[in-house]
Specification:
Number of strands: 20
CATH topology of the largest domain: Jelly Rolls
Radius of gyration: 19 Å
Strand content: over 45%
Number of helices: 0
Number of domains: 2
Structural class: mainly beta
Largest sheet: 9 strands, antiparallel
C-alpha cells in the first residue's frame, strides 16, 4: 500500500455489537455504532476493535479498510459482508479506492464520500432512489454559558431539501431546566433551516441518545450552501460533546 491514512472527522459511539477494526460502520436506531449493512451506507470506518457496549472510535476521510475481495485503485467501493470493502456493483458507493487489493484480507485505503443513495437504487428523483447527502459534525464540550455562533458544519453538494437534523449526545448535559435553556439553530446565511430549544419540557438527550430538531418549512438548499450551527446557552447550561447529523435529499 502506497498511500497514507489521513482521517478527517473522528468521533466515537457506543458499540451496538462486537466490531472488528478496519470495517465500515453505520449507526442504529439507538445511536450505537454497528457494522454497516452489505451494499448499504456507512458513516465511517472503525479505528479500534470494540466489544458490544464499549467505545467505538470512528473516522472518515482517507481511511484504511479490510478488503473483502480484489479492488482496483480508482474503483468505486461499496460495503461488503462483515463491513469489508468491495468493488461497487449494485450497492451504495461509499468511497473511492486510493490503493488496490489483489484479494480478501488485504488492507486498502479508501476516500470516503458523504453522498449516498439511501435506497441503493440509481440516484434519480422520487421516493425509491432519491440521492441523499449526510453531513456529520462533532462539537467539542461546551463549558457553562459557552455558545457556538455561525459555526460551519458542512457544505451542500447539490440543490435539495434538508429532511432531517439530529443531535446525538456524547455525554451528560448539566443545567438545562425550567429556567435555563439551550437553543439550537441551523442556518444557511441568515435563513433558519432547523431549530430546537432544550429546557424542562424538551430535555437534552442523554449520553448516546438522539433528539431531532424541527426542520423549517423552507428547508431548501443550493449547491455550495454552507450550513451554520448556532447554539445559545444560558449561563448555567453546560453541554457535553455532541454530534449533529444533517440529511439532505438531493433534487
Amino acid at each position: 500500500m502506497n498511500a497514507y491514512e489521513i482521517p478527517n472527522l473522528r468521533f466515537s459511539l457506543p458499540a451496538g455489537e462486537d466490531i472488528a477494526r478496519r470495517r465500515f460502520v453505520s449507526v442504529n436506531s439507538s445511536s450505537e455504532g454497528v457494522i454497516a449493512t452489505t451494499a448499504g451506507s456507512a458513516i465511517g470506518v472503525s479505528m479500534n476493535e470494540a466489544a458490544d457496549g464499549e467505545v467505538l472510535d470512528i473516522a472518515d476521510g482517507i481511511v484504511v479498510v479490510e478488503a473483502g475481495g480484489a479492488i482496483t485503485a480508482g474503483a468505486d467501493v461499496e460495503v461488503g459482508a462483515n463491513g469489508k470493502a468491495v468493488a461497487k456493483t449494485t450497492g451504495i458507493g461509499v468511497g473511492v479506492a486510493i490503493t488496490g487489493a489483489t484479494g480478501a484480507g488485504q488492507l486498502v485505503a479508501v476516500k470516503l464520500v458523504s453522498v449516498s443513495n439511501a435506497n441503493g437504487a440509481d440516484g434519480t428523483n422520487g421516493t425509491d432512489g432519491a440521492a441523499t447527502q449526510t453531513i456529520i459534525y462533532t462539537a467539542a464540550d461546551l463549558e457553562a454559558g459557552v455558545d457556538l455562533a455561525d459555526t460551519p458544519i458542512g457544505a451542500v453538494v447539490g440543490a435539495g431539501t434538508i429532511t432531517a437534523v439530529t443531535i446525538i449526545s456524547l455525554g451528560a448535559a448539566d443545567g438545562v431546566n425550567e429556567t435555563n435553556e439551550s437553543a439550537f439553530v441551523l442556518e444557511v446565511g441568515t435563513t433558519t433551516k432547523a431549530t430546537e430549544t432544550f429546557n424542562a419540557d424538551t430535555t437534552f438527550p442523554a449520553s448516546g441518545a438522539a433528539a431531532a430538531l424541527t426542520v423549517a418549512e423552507d428547508a431548501s438548499v443550493a449547491a455550495g450552501d454552507v450550513l451554520l450551527l448556532n447554539v445559545t446557552n444560558d449561563d448555567a447550561v453546560n453541554l457535553p460533546s455532541f454530534m449533529v447529523q444533517v440529511v439532505v435529499t438531493l433534487d
